[in-house]
Structure formats: C-alpha cells, structure tokens
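Model: Ready when you are.
Researcher: Fold this.
Model:
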Amino acid sequence: MTEVQHVTEVAKGISDYGMMAVSAAFFLLLSAAMMIALFKWFKSMINRLLEQQECLNQLLDTVQDNVSLQRNLMERLQPETLLRIRNLTGFAFDLSIEQVCRLIKRVRIENHIADREATVNKIRKSLQVIHDDRKSRFDPFIYHGKPLSEYCNENWVEDVVSVVESEIYNEDGENNARAYTNVKLAYDNIKTDFYQRLNS
C-alpha cells in the first residue's frame, strides 16, 4: 500500500508541478507578448512624435520666413507711413494756423478786449476746441499701435494762447502779417514737437 501511495503522491506532485510549470510558462509568454506590444506601442508613439516634430520644425521655419518678410515690408513702409502722416498732419496744422488767424481778427472785432482776463479765457476755450477737433481727426490714424491723437500735447494750447494774447494786446496795434508770422512760428514749433514725439 505504501508503494501505491508513493506512486500516487509522485504522480500528484508531477501533476501539480506540471500545471504550475504550464501556468508559469503561460504567464511568462503573456508577459513577454505584453512587453513586446508595449515596446512597439512606445516605438510607434516616439516615431509619431518625431514626425510631428519635423512638421513643427517646417512650420516654424515657414513662420520665421514670414516674420522676416513682414519685418522687411515694415522697414520699407515706415518712411512712407511717416511721410503720409507728415502730409496729413501738416494740412491739419496749416488749417489750424488759418483758424487761429481768423480767431485773432474775430476777437479784435467782436470782443471788449479791455477785460483781458475774460478775453484770454475766451481765446483759451476757442483754441481748446480747435485742438480737440484736430485730435479727433487724428484718432482714426494709427502709428506704432497708438492713435495719432496720443502724440498730441495739451501744452500746445497754452503756447498758442500766449501768441494770440500777445498779438491782440500788442502795443504796436493790429498787424495781420505779423500775427500770421507769429502764429505760423508757434505751429511750426508744435509740428516739430509732434514729429519728435512720433520718432521717440
């Protein structure tokens, strides 16, 4: 009986170990297959990333070429843009010269200029209206990302007020030619300041 029992135990042991060996082999094969599949998946992802990187590099090169072309165009157009701005603003400032000369004549005729303070206040208000009108006409035009009106200076009004006041209360009396010359000189200074603001 012991022999039969020994044989049965050996058969059972072989049977058990054989099943374990088969299971272990199966799991080893499954693990190897999963590792191979994962490695292939990682390899395909890396290849796709490399292809996308090549595409992105080509796109970056194209964008850099476009930026350099745009920079060249901007450099070529900047002097022309500045020339257009100078022409446009030159007409606006020339119109302001005429408006101020008419204002001087009108104040001499219509106002009681003996009241100097009231006269100067009226002049200041009129010149502020002219200045604000000119600024509003500059608003639609852009230079360096800002409307042209931002390059205007509020102190210009006071500069012109002093010129107009000195013309109205000049001891030598009325002289339209002198008034025009002085107003034009004031607006030439304003133009110079405006162009310096554009270039700074």
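Researcher: Now this one.
Model:
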Amino acid sequence: MRIPVPGSRVDLLLEELWNAGGTDLLLTVGMAPQLRVHGVLRPVADKTPLTRRDTDAMLAEILNPHRSNVWQTTYEHDFSFSWRDNARIRANAFTQRGDTALALRVIPRSIPTMSELGLPPVIGTFARLHQGLVLVTGPTGSGKSTTLASVIHQINTDRACHIITIEDPIEYVHEHRRSAVNQREVGSDTASFPDALRAALREDPDVLLVGEMRDLESIRFALTIAETGHLVFATLHTNDTAQSLARIIDVFPPEQQSQVRVQLAAALSGVVHQRLIPRVGGGLVAAFEVMVANAGIRNLIKEGKTHQLRNALVTGRREGMITLEQSLSELIMAGQITPEDAYSRSSHPKEIELRPRVRSGAVQV
C-alpha cells in the first residue's frame, strides 16, 4: 500500500504544496494547514482550522506499523517516505499541548548538481579528497542536506569507491553509479549514530556521510575515522565556522579538550557554513562561508585560538576561503538579495559592503 493513500488528505495537501513551489507543510491543531513558500508561511486555500481528530487522522495516513510503535512510545518521531513519483517527504511528528502536530518537508527526487546550487568552486575540491573531515554547518532549513547530497552525487559520478551514509531519516536517495552507495537510516537500519559509526570501519568505506554529529561518541568516532584515511562529511547546527569547531571541542570534558584540538586540527579539511536568503523576485539563494584547513588554521585550532579563525578567513580568498559577509556582499552587488535581508542574517553586519571598493583605480569586491 502506498503511503499516503492517493486522494487522502495528506496526499492532497502535499499536492497543493508541490504546485505552489513550497518546501514545508505544517499541521497543528487550531489553525489551517500552513505552507512554507519561498521561506514564508501562508495558509492553504481552505482556511478551516484543524482539529485534534484531523491531525491524528493525518498522522495515521503516513504511519506504517513500525513507525506507529515508535510514535506510541516516544510521541516524537522523524521518518521519511516516498510521495507519488515526485519527491521524498521528510516528516517530523510531535505533540504540543497534548495534541498531534506534523512538519513535512519536500525532498525532490532529482539531486541538484553543485553548479545548479551555485556552490563555491572550493567545495568541489572537498569532493575530490580521499581523506579528512569536512563539516557542513548552518541553522535548520539552510540547505545542508541538499549541499551534502550534491557532493555525494558528484563523488558517486566521478570515481569508484564505497560510500556509506548514516541519516535520520534518509532524504535524498542515491543510485549506484561509479560508486557503491549504502544508505543507513537510524531507527530502521541501525539503532543510533554511534552504533553505525562503530560498525562503519568494518564495512570497508572510502567515504562516510554522518547526517548529524549530535553527541560526544559520534564526534569521537567521526574524528577517528577521518584520521585513519577515510573521507568524512558531517553536519552541525551552528551559526558560523568558529562556533562549529568550538562546539566539537566543548562537547568533551576539559581534561580531554587539548588532545581533541590536536586530533581535530589533524583531521579537519574544511568547513562550509551556509544560509538561505530570500531572493529578490522570489525564491531563495544560498550565502556561504568556507574555510580551508591550511597550516595556519591547524595551528590556531591546536592552540585553542578559534576566535582568531575569522581573520584567517578574511585573508584566505586566494585559497578559496570566504566569509559569510563577503558572500552576502557579492549577492547584494549582483542584485540577488536586499541589504536588509543580508544584515538580518549576519553576525558582523558592519562588514557587509553595498558596492565594490575602488582602490588605486582598480575595482575590488
């Protein structure tokens, strides 16, 4: 049986979301279903508020027996399912004030290329690495999963290797191309991220994707795997590059942090931080901050001087590095975003430039 059943209420709401070009569907008691289109929530055409019976019934439409058992135990559950032939849907079911609520996100079946996403060229060099740790960071809904799917797709297209992904839940589905791609979903294929990471070294991987490094054990395994000659991609929910590295180090007890800094400095290859910004004229466009782990940056990490990483980013343009503010400035000058939207998403708004700088007769950005 297909989930949801064609013509069911969830199926029709997803159809309305798809036709609107939206990304998310929010279902909660007391208000009409909400669509997120170009980053903005708006109600569906039928503005009738949902009842408890409505949200319970709609959840039942997309639960199989296994998911139903998890839901009845935890009252919060992440899972994914295929919808028609159009997309996969990432779902989060939860309770609020005792009532069922749902957040559904559309994941297109086709994986965009790195050029289609407008990823900085240096990210392509990360895809060509054979070992190291690459972090992709940003707030929820910033496109991290799509960026990583694009990178994995590029590796899968370019070279023969064994790729293992550990996800919660699986979003983009990768076909076997030049590579063998094994995708493991937490809760279905493995009990937890640490369990899957512990097993990974016995599964002969060349490339490992960790959907999220949530805890000390996952971080420890990911660092060890990257140190032992494997290429590891992982995500973190953080606000900038320096915070990402500090988050990894701070997870460990104080007496272990010095050793972890040495380990991180040795394993790290790069950090990509991204934000999605409303595009002038509609849609969203990504702004990026990219750090390449050179010798100077590795020394700053080992010495516990992550607060100085920003200076290294500012001066690292020749190596492909860019600060978020430099990226935002370029988008403003290209007419793709407004200054107001750029300022609201920056921790250093004074560094955003609205027009090219002119020095000694030359125009510089």
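Researcher: Key takeaway?
Model: The first helix runs from residue 9 to 19.
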